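Progress against Task 2.4 (sequence-to-structure conversion) is shown through the following example record, which the project officer requested during the mid-term review.
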Amino acid sequence: MTRYKKISCLMVAIATGLGSCGGGGGGDSSSSNSDSSVTTVGKIDGFGSVYVNGIEFDTSQTSYEVDGEQEFDDSALGLGMVVRVEGQVSEDGMTGIAEHIEYDDDLEGPIDNGSLVRGDTVTTFTILGMAVQADINETVFDDGASYQSLAEGQELEVSGYFDGSQIVASRIELQSDGEDDFEIKGTVASYDENGIALVLQNGSIAGPYPLSDQVELEIPEDPVGLFVEVELRDRGGILEAVHIETEDSDRLEDRDEDISLEGILVVSGDQVYSLDGVEFVVSPTTVYKPSSLEGGLTAGMRLEVEGHMQGELLVAEKVESEGGEIEIEAAVGSVTASDEKNGTVTLDLGGGRTLMVQFNNATYYKDDSDSDLDDDDSFNLSELMSGDFIEIEAIQSAGELTAVKANREDELSETEIEAPLEAYASGASVTLLGVTFPVDSSAEYEIDDDSVSMEQFFSELSVGSTIKLKDENFDGTIDKVELDD
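Structure tokens generated for the chain above:
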């Protein structure tokens, strides 16, 4: 029988030296959460069960709440939705039992006129004044939405993480034709019988919106300063507030739980960190994966933090990168899998060289190939074949390479590896990820996008520098070597 994780609050307090447990100090050891379940907040990375933060949740006995409505199964959920899962997690952190899954979108409404700034891979815009970033590689688009078709006036539903200035969208859906109900969240700046105005998370002012004659209110008499969700309805070009309710500024409710939280790091002061609206602290006992994160936490990093709530703070026991520091584009040589999500993929780097990459429940599987026959924008290891082309973001820890994100493509223009330099022989070879690649004067060399000679290139190399290698013909011959100084 699987044993489930029950971390003692008192043990955390002793280990971190931050004092006793419970809300806001005081308390005693009897208030420990040794019998509590784990709350997991993160985006959905896969189905079959439901995969969140690298955990495969059994949903056979799960209750669901989606946008305030009770649902019977996970058919109302989709990839990229940021959800809150209440349940239990096994000691290895790989499997769990979901008792309740809750989803509430962050924003609904039309893209504001004049706000769309389109890029090749990243596009920004505002909806009702709230800033949003869409990424062609990171955002899941569904229900008719696509990166290429983003347009001003288009009505969208957005889920994602706030990075300190904008919502970085993990999922964007197109609202139904004729939909005239929108939603926005923020702190009440002003409120009276005539209307409500909000300060949004990015600092913009939304409103004031007039109150509908039939407005439903789930707020105190004086809500100024409270974080609320406002449902708006378009009445002939005028947005009226039809429902207002208080809302948590983060996705946590019961503060006395073990927490697994995914998001984008916000740094507001000297070692003052927050993730998805939740402040967290690190201690000498915090474990980092990869270890290079210790002392190197920087705003904008995608992280997963595991720990325990102590008052209003999350005490971090583990901090793990959700963004790959290593990038690889290559053909698949072979796949060895223990199940659909866990196994080893051997990449063919050409010239008889190979590289083994570990895949697990935490890997985000994205499918942009014609092989996506079930049209779910995802794949698994049972569907991955020798000869498929794949783009990988990975981290390296204890000599093992683990895929954070994998994207299957129909074709690649070249084999490409970007990773820290481990060793080199001037004018002869470079070693990345334990693989040595011979190079010579026939290759093109660049430093900070400027062409240089092979001799100058090697004269400026140092172990630990980030190197990018390109093999344009998949023949094992390195055609281009780049140094980002």
